[in-house]
Amino acid sequence: MDENTRSQKLAAEVLGTALLVFIGVGAVPATLIVNGDAPFTMADLGVISFAFGTVVIATVYALGHVSGNHINPAVTLGLAVSGKFPWKEVPGYIAAQVVGATIGALAIVGALGSKAHEVGLGVASFNRSLGVGNVQGFCAEFVGTFILVFVVFGVIHRKAASGFAGVAIGLVVFAAIIPVAPATAAAINPARVIGPMLVLQAFGDAGCQARGEAPAGHARCGVYIDSNPSKESTPRRNAFCRG
After folding, report:
1. Helix or strand or coil: residue 187?
2. How far apart are alpha carbons 132 and 158 in whole angstroms?
3. Could you report the per-residue pLDDT of 193-206, keeping only the tens digit for each?
4. Is 222 within the bounds of a domain?
5. pLDDT 10s digits, 53-99
6. What is the pLDDT of residues 19-37, one digit of tens each?
7. Whole-angstrom Cα distance, residue 135 to residue 166?
8. Is 80 domain-assigned?
9. Contact at 8 Å (CB) between 212 and 141?
């Protein structure tokens, strides 16, 4: 990874996060538009989760050799806390991820038109109709992000089976979304929240969700170190957009 310049790494983070948002988050308004007035079902959630999982797998193999394909501030922070990533690179990576997420959200509107904006642009927020408050939402996001970062740390370990990192990370993203989405839309990624929020010009619950995700990266890092002491808004809004 050393042969890549800082500019190349940041560009890869912008592109990777943009693809994550366009395909993963974009699957939400696409589903709502196609469904029309039909109710949101578990099958719809499965399709959206699959979109997230597959784009993560693709970007890990396409961009991982350039920047590490963090595409998530929680992953970047977790790696920095564990000493596996230099702190001086953290601000640039996180900024690149937010820029990429914003570009991805703009691309969704470009592809799906104003209808995407009308159905909420896939913005993740707490499901108030189920009584999800800040504490429950924080816990849901914390657990989902913790699981994701846990797996990331596991697959990059020197003893992990080589060649399967992308598949493992993509599958855990797919799996984690299923139980967390009904409560918070399973952001498990602060940038994935902030980018679409900026495009919608509404911030709502973004702050609380981001606070649930970042500490999870830190916590996972602590568990991993302890276990390896000597080793290195509109008309239709569902669980994916409630204000």
Report:
1. coil
2. 40
3. 999 999 987 433 34
4. yes
5. 999 999 999 999 999 999 999 999 999 999 999 999 999 999 999 99
6. 999 999 999 999 999 999 8
7. 32
8. yes
9. yes
Please tell me the distance from the alpha carbon of residue 6 to that of residue 215, in angstroms, as a whole number: 26
Going by the DSSP 8-state scheme, the letter that residue 239 receives in this structure is: T
- One DSSP character per residue, 114-179 reads HHHHHTTTT-----GGGT--HHHHHHHHHHHHHHHHHHHHHHTSTTSPTT-HHHHHHHHHHHHHHH
Q: Is 33 exposed, middle or buried (0-12, 13-18, 19+ CB in 10 A)?
A: middle
Q: What CATH number should be reported for the domain holding residue 75?
A: 1.20.1080.10
Distance of CA 11 to the CA centre of its chain: 18
Give the mean pLDDT of 164-168. 95
In a domain? residue 240: no
Determine the Cα–Cα distance for residues 41 and 47; give it in Å rounded to an integer: 10
Instruction: Count CA atoms closer than 13 A to 28's CA, side-chain side.
Output: 31
Q: Tokens for 106, please give them.
A: 């703009």
Task: Write down the pTM of the prediction.
Answer: 0.81
- Domain of 23, in residue numbers: 6-227
Give domain status of residue 236, yes or no.
no
Q: How far apart are CA 116 and CA 57, in angstroms?
A: 25
Q: Which residue has the higher pLDDT, 211 or 176?
A: 176
What is the tally of structural domains in the chain?
1
What is the reported pLDDT for 128?
Answer: 83
